[in-house]
Amino acid sequence: MMKKLYSCVFVLLVLCSALPVCAKEFHVAKSGSDQGNGSKRLPFLTIGKAALVAGPGDVITVHRGVYRELVAPVIGG
């Protein structure tokens, strides 16, 4: 019985380690700056800048405004 419990715990740990651990969230706002870090407090100004730094699994939140730009993400996902 104890051996089965340890096996289940081991499988659970392996599965949890396969999950994305640190997906980041970047913010884009018309009041932002591409010199910022993309946080909610210091958002980027352009979607293109956010797409440049974001990786697979990351989230880009685009706040209200009109953004006229061509966005071509370097990294897909």
Quick description:
The protein has 77 residues and is an alpha+beta fold.
Number of helices: 2
Beta-strand portion reads 5-15%
Task: Give the N-terminus to C-terminus distance in angstroms.
Answer: 42 Å
Largest sheet: 2 strands, parallel
Mean pLDDT: 82
Number of strands: 2
Ranges where pLDDT stays below 50 over 5 or more residues in a row are: none
Give the strand line-up of the largest sheet: 1-2
Class of secondary structure makeup: alpha+beta
Inertia-based shape: globular
Give the helix level as a range of percent. 25-40%
What is the chain-wise order of helices and strands?
HEHE
Give the C-alpha Rg. Answer: 19 Å
Task: Describe the protein.
The chain is built from two helices and two strands, in the order αβαβ. Strands 1-2 form a two-stranded parallel ribbon. Helix content is 30%, strand content 10%. It is of the alpha+beta class.
